[in-house]
Amino acid sequence: xxxxxxxxxxxxxxxxxTASCSDWLDVRPDTEIKEEVLFSTEEGYKSALxxxxxxxxxxxLYGGNMSFDFMEKLVQRYDNYNSWExxxxxxxxxxxxxxxxxxxYSLATIWxxxxxxxxxxxxxxxxxxxxxxxxxxxxxxxIIKGEALGLRAFIxxxxxxxxxxxxxxxxxxxxxxxxxxxxxxxxxxMPAKDVIKHILADLDQAEELLQDDxxxxxxxxxxxxxxxxxxxxxxxxxLKARVYLWSGDTSNAYRYANEVIETSGLSLSTDNKRDPSxxxxxxxxxxxxNMEEELKDIFPxxxxxxxxxxxxxxxxxxSIDNGRDVFxxxxxxxxxxxxxxxxxxxxxxxxxxxxxxMAVSELSSFTKDxxxxxxxxxxxxxxxxxxxxxxxxxxxxxxRKTRGIPSRFNLKADGSxxxxxxxxxxxxxxxxxxxxxxxxxxxxxxxxxxTFHRCPLQQGMxxxxxxxxxxxxxxxxxxxxx
Amino acid sequence: xxxxxICLLLLSxxxxxGQANAATLESTFFTRSxxxxxxxxxxxxxxxxxxxxxxxxxxxxxxxxxxxRGVATDVNGKFTFTAPKDVxxxxxxxLGYETQTVKVNKQRDLKVLLMPTSFEIEEMVITxxxxxxxxxxxxxxxxxxxxxxxxxxxxxxxxxxxxxxPSFRILDNNSAGSNxxxxxxxxxxxxxxxxxxxxxxxxDIMLGxxxxxxxxxxxxxxxxxxxxxxxxxxxPERIKEVVILKDAAATAVYGSKASNGIIVFxxxxxxxGKLNVIYSTNMxxxxxxxxxxxxMNAEQKxxxxxxxxxxxxxxxxxxxxxxxxxxxxxxxxDTYWLSQALQTPLIQRHTLSLxxxxxxxxYNLSLSHNRNPGVMKKSGRNMTSFNFDLTYxxxxxxxxxxxxxxxxxxxxxxxxSFSQYTRVNPYYRMYDDEGKLIKILDVKNRGVGxxxxxxxNPLYNATLEHKDRQRSISxxxxxxxxxxxxxxxxxxxxxxxxKTFANSEKFLSPNHTSFExxxxxxxxxxxxxxxxxxxxxxxxxxxxxxxxxxxREHTLTxxxxxxxxxxxxxxxxxxxxxxxxxxxxxxxxxxxxxNRPTGGDSKTRSIGLxxxxxxxxxxxxxxxxxxxxxLSSSFGADNRLxxxxxxxxxxxxxxxxxxxxxxxxxxxxxxxxxxxxxxxNYSPYQAIQTYTFNHFMHPYVSSDVIxxxxxxxxxxxxxxxxxxEKSLGVNASFLKNRLHASFSMYDNYTDQLLVDFTAAPSxxxxxxxxxxxxxxxxxxQFNVSLFLYENISERIQWIVSLNGANNRNxxxxxxxxxxxxxxxxxxxxxxxxxMYVEGESTxxxxxxxxxxxxPATGQELYLxxxxxxxxxxSAADKRAVGDSNPDLxxxxxxxxxYKNLSLSCSFMYEFGAQRYxxxxxxxxENADLAYNADARVLTERWSPDNREALYKAINxxxxxxxxxxxxxxxYNEMRxxxxxxxxxxxxxxxxxxxxLNIGSMTLSGHMNDxxxxxxxxxxxxxxxxxxxxxxxxxxxxxx
Lengths: 482, 1039
Hints:
CATH topology of chain A: Serine Threonine Protein Phosphatase 5, Tetratricopeptide repeat
CATH class of the domain at 31-114 in chain B: Mainly Beta
Radius of gyration of chain B: 32 Å
Number of helices of chain B: 14
Structural class of chain B: mainly beta
Number of strands of chain A: 8
Distance between the termini of chain A: 81 Å
CATH architecture of the domain at 31-114 in chain B: Sandwich
Distance between the termini of chain B: 32 Å
Low-confidence stretches of chain A: none
Order of helices and strands of chain A: HHEHHHHHHEEHHHEHHEHHEEEHHHHH
CATH superfamily of the domain at 31-114 in chain B: Immunoglobulins
CATH architecture of chain A: Alpha Horseshoe
Shape of chain A: globular
Low-confidence stretches of chain B: 6-36, 118-122, 192-196
Helix content of chain B: 10-25%
Oligomer: heterodimer
Largest interface: A-B, 94 and 86 residues
Mean pLDDT of chain A: 89
Number of strands of chain B: 47
């Protein structure tokens, strides 16, 4: 009988052994980190926020599609087609957003990537609410929260500008799912005017939180340097000007554009030879690690890429004729620095190649690897569009002067000068100024322009400003516009 | 060269051993007295099974008067015993047989017949943890003998195993075909879990990690958990038996590891004797099987291009191109690209083992080399393994030590993916006029606005310097100790250690066609080298006690075990580029590394506690109760698993007093079990939200830290998923034991099934883990084997067996979040129909119903939700139109033995399922005609002259056809998987064996994957063709 007890004793011993090993079992894979661990330190919040900028800088978003790639292809910027003559019908295929592979894929990518970024932002905001105040000092808390809110507004606004309506015509159109917390919940589309309200609410809050922010940053604070590469106070205000203008609130748009011009301390740049993307005008831009190297196949820094009879299909060049039309060389001469060889473009073999993202030798570490998102010029254009005709003409002339257009071509707000003419001039300026920056399409859409330079559509552009909700979204029972 | 060297080496080893055999064996240390005193005599004899007259190997023959003196019988059941002259009695014993005392008179050549103790007691079920008496075992299992496996497939143990149990299936890998470097995927339970193909180059897999493979069963080898690679390296000749454990009662002791089934392998114990030299070899040919390809020839292809509109008669450039091709075709250019990268290689395996020892101490030393070249040139896998087993057994103490070294080298073909060869147009020539391979065959214009197709010669790359190799080396040491305190109480402990090193290397020459785009731009980017290295260390140990009490009619067994395991692995992968000269093919010569190093580091640890109580009454009724709890680092530190348990019962009806064994029915037993097993392919731990720095390791200038982003969307509301398994089984023998039948049915209810659920893109992540609700799998399995003819005295036997399985699943309930999702989907006219619906199966195929091609327009006509014909395809019109789950699948096997000759064959069948035929879509309708395609492109496409066609009109880039029922086909299949013929030579019958000092010899021939008859015609083996194998095996036991 003695022996019968033995197994039970053993079992009890084993049970005790098992109970005391929870420390031994607590191992964590080294390549990832639990959310709650990340957000238990200041560095974690900083990393999570830095991650947002890194995400935005991907080629799928502002490092490509949203800047020089898809957004510019939408307005037929480039001429890099195969050897022979390209018909309008071929170029128009892009606007069959549901059928054309390039358009469908790019739009689905932009939609999905933007929302992944939003999901990341929402999770930062959630953690800030829950435990941020315990971990962060008040300054950093305000900065991180302000930037996160501003970034969410920025991204939603770009989503709205693509998938939302031409606002002046149909502000009630159901446009986007507004997601402000990270979850798998089913969220239907929200009407554009409500999206605008939410965006403005985020921006109001961001403005409040970032009121002590400057563009110069804080000395000796390595996390608060190069503020123009972050969603800073003036980026928020400039974005507000953009949003108000989009929603038709010209007085507020004027107010914010003016405030930025007056108080940001930035001035218009005259040197785009050594600083092709004009970083000194950045109200908000992104740093893209090793960008020029990565884009070498698209914007090769030497003329050899342009000299061959058929340049590699990846090179986004334009023909000299196209360039001369865009920059009105016939009317305004060749002095516009945005057009000039070795300034805005590299000219060779009757072709031109944008220098904004090119690895040119003049770049310093302060000007390279950057993508502009909001530049000071746009504030001049917005103020010019919202103010009186005189002010508009003034602002346009100011910009044109810094770009090298001789003053004899200055616009004059005399009796014959109408608002339509102002809009027409602004259109040309957006087309020239934001080459490769993805903003021109939005100008065309805001004004519901019937056509544009080299528009291949016979029926005009008006039916093609609103992007269709991606199929994958619809297949989940979401995305109904009705 | 290499192959010859190895053959030579093996031969010389053989010759040497043969001599050693003759010269030295007399003085080996096993015989206790090698100097025979004059008063001793030599007794010889043979020990046979009294029932079957088969020789018994390893039976102990001992001196009754002095039990310390004894010998064991050899492979032919023979023994030679030197005994004192006054010997009167010998005792002969063997496990499972009644011990017999033999009187020794004047007779010096004995024949001993041992009676099996009882027919049943010799039947033990190995569960990988214990041996259990079969008559008391309440679980569902299938046992297969090693020699039966060899008969079906001597090259692939796992493929052979399929023939014996329908629930075990290797999934067809349509892209990897017969690639010897591809690892198989399995299906053990009815429901295939979500899973993606196994990448054999994945470092974790190379290191033997199986934790993250959703469908991988757990492999046990001689009581230790091993990796899939180890099983693939295992020489079939070493296998004694394999047990597939199926239901809860059989697997509950494995807890959360049981979810994909357990397969237990047991190897043969070393044969006792002076020194047994065993040599076995298997050699054969593998022949590529291209019968599923039906491509256009040069003339047809050019015709198809003409029809598609590649050439405009008004465009002189295009017409020039056309005429150039045409001229080539007229000159007879019609390259059969398919065969260019293929070979018919010789596969071979050699195993040499030395075994011997006495009853107490036995050893086995074996060396095995397996060369397994694939049908694509220069591809293959070579495995070398070395084993040293030592067993020591006395009355109370039992120690088994086993050491294994394995070396596994896989080479991928420099010829690249087979799909390249199926795509190249046959009107291209391989060589230019000077007889050199053409690098770029063509730049084919697809028309305005479309990119041109650069068609390179796939053969060109094969001429370049190339490396694409994976290697893993493992060292395994297992020790098992067992001590019997009392006849009823046993304590045992196992300790296992595995160390694995792996590396993979891939070098592409700077002249490789994939670098064509850099030609003018950058020399520093041409040529690339990928290199990765990894290392893993696994420890596992356990302590168990076994208590056995037998009193009159009652038998009580208790079993307790504590086990602990730990695995650490880390890996590093580097890529460099810029190798200007292809002979500078070492990683070190790279210009720079474009990407930062990647890799991983992981640790897992787990602890398990097992308890089991079994009770049997009068060999008639038995009950089993098992319990297990698991703790594991992969569940999170504070997450204790709910205990897994099972309760099983068995009733041996044939042992009842009232049951009279008769001619009609001779055996009958019933068994049933219920239990809870783990069935998670995800753990809630995986649903914890984590961040990674992985993609953002570069700086962001306005920040002093690196960026982090979310890995995936977490789901805090998940619960553990578990399956309640119920099963019921009957075993019976009829007609004087000529018909054996077993039947089992099961009902598995999985609650809180976790699925990887696709999310709307606006969620921000592709998918998230969601509780789908509950799913019920029900099914049955049967196995019938019939002795069609049996004549024991003439040794003729013909057995035919049939097995089959059926599984149906049904969604029993769905979670609230899914229900909300489904509701939204139904309300939206553009939404696809929901996947998980209560009362429906999860393997349904959803497609838009098609009415075929409209003869008038050539457009496909669909049927929409309201049964109206429409030309517009919409995901919302999808309906459940088929099921990918077959009604019945299984095998038919036949085995015929006449004296020493045996003939076996095996068929696999499957019917009642539907499949979407991708070949029709990809290679006909959506085929990009810049490349070659299926011959039906030419004949079965719609045109104004062929209005009743099956497929849409021919065009250049292929139609972008959406999935519809037009491509859904019934899937019924019968495969002739194996046939083998073998002959066993015996010394008594075949005199020449004695002259050659051979104890026994078996020669056999095999054919595998012979034929396939299917209702679906589709291309198989896309990246690597399938193959048939013809081989011969020879196994020799030297005396």
